[in-house]
């Protein structure tokens, strides 16, 4: 094939955040913006990691993905990649890309998604790169890519026509080829190996159990019917918003109590279903609900870990180890302790779990931000989390006769609290604040940390320690610093602040609040009520209102 050399100039601001590069679509549509980043990536990888190699390309179906796919394919070919496997119409969820990279032994893959951020001409676009074990590229790579975006002068593009992504099959262009694949089949095969599908089917096909899954018009729309309906016996009307749309039907494809309001209303309404779940733009997040009951993601991962061995065949010898991101509540720590499992606390973002999994130290992990997953792949996995929960409920009810009262989602959670205690948890997000004020607040907090010492009194709380979280990877010894300011008190309560690394405008402040409650008689309290004193303390110690000018958070989870 003929390769064109396209002259270009560096473009500012192409540094990746918590999970890939995210900007407004309009920014990505500027001439050479995406092309520069993709070329900088090839300039950063060792040639043996892609020359004549295999890469995977997926995406969540959002606006601009079609154009972007063509740009990525042509630059990959221009840099000597041998073959690209791409999901039909450019669709493949983040977890499915990770699964396909692993199964097909690819060198890596791209995901065209800004995840839970809204899509459409006025909204966001994004790109993530995953490496050969299917995990998000580590900071050592993303830092190199950023460095190369600052000095780029040439893009190598194959002179080939646009590839038709609407039909399955292989198209050859000299030494380069593109294979359009079904985005579901490899992923479905993996799920069938991880879970006991007949156990799940026994629950989903019961007439006394009602299930609902909200795909939020995002990528899991492509997976929900083949998996839940065709394979597992759920009824067709149990899938809502099941068609992926370029603008997610004007929605914000973030499965939480604010943005998945339709589902929440159904679950809290009169005679609601027994089980509800939703997933985000690219299919890696999940929200789990019972009838009139919300499972916090921090509890969710702990409960999955505690029940995995009996309910999920993949874990039949027990999980190897557990891990959570730093702001995620300590509910998982309690399970690790009780089961005597190795336990790890890593910075926010899935890329920090991969090394531990590759080293065989970690099986189940999660983040408070609606991310849950395991070492079956190297990404968090929304549909996996839903199947894990249904497996747990199905296992508990497998001997129940029709008409007998079933063990519910809230029964499982309350039983867990009774055994382990309850970690009350809440996160306040202040989205799109002025960057200046937000940065000043973080500086102020760091200063406060440097002056603080054990025993300092904050109202009724005594400080155990305060720091700005630093993580040293136990496998490759790489260090990630400044990962969030935390105040940890002697009773285990925690107040944490960090700035989001996934927004596309301004700064988003995240405030995380946690308090442990061993007393069962207090477990039914509303989290906002239970946490009120600590929330007030967090707001006053950070001077958040003064620095950001915000009276109220945009989102509470
Ligand atoms: C957020 C979450 C983090 C998650 C990341 C990517 O990052 O807090 O836990 O891993 O999004 O999720 P931040 O930096 O905005 O807090 V996804 O589903 O957007 O790829
Ligand atoms: Co996502």
What's the helix and strand layout?
Blueprint: E1 3-7, E2 21-24, H1 25-28, H2 33-44, E3 54-59, H3 65-78, E4 83-87, H4 94-103, E5 108-112, E6 124-130, H5 139-149, E7 154-158, E8 169-173, E9 176-181, H6 185-194, H7 197-204, E10 211-214, H8 221-231, E11 239-240, H9 261-268, E12 275-279, E13 286-290, E14 293-295, H10 297-311, E15 322-325, H11 331-338, E16 343-346, H12 354-358, E17 364-367, E18 371-374, H13 382-396, H14 409-420, E19 422-433, H15 435-451, E20 457-458, E21 461-468, E22 471-472, E23 479-480, E24 485-489, E25 494-499, E26 507-517, H16 527-542, H17 544-548, E27 555-556
Bound molecules: alpha-D-glucose-1-phosphate-6-vanadate (VG1) and cobalt (II) ion.
EC number: 5.4.2.2
Enzyme class: isomerase
GO molecular function: magnesium ion binding; phosphoglucomutase activity
- Spatial shape: globular
Bound molecules: alpha-D-glucose-1-phosphate-6-vanadate, cobalt (II) ion
Write the CATH architecture name of the largest domain: 3-Layer(aba) Sandwich
Oligomeric form: single chain
Which ranges are low-confidence, i.e. pLDDT below 50, for 5 or more consecutive residues?
none
% residues in beta strands: 15-25%
Widest sheet, order of strands: 2-6-5-3-4-9-8
Q: What is the gyration radius calculated from CA atoms? A: 23 Å
Number of strands: 27
Let me know the largest β-sheet.
7 strands, mixed
DSSP summary: helix tally: 17
Counting helices, strands and paired strands, the structural category is alpha/beta
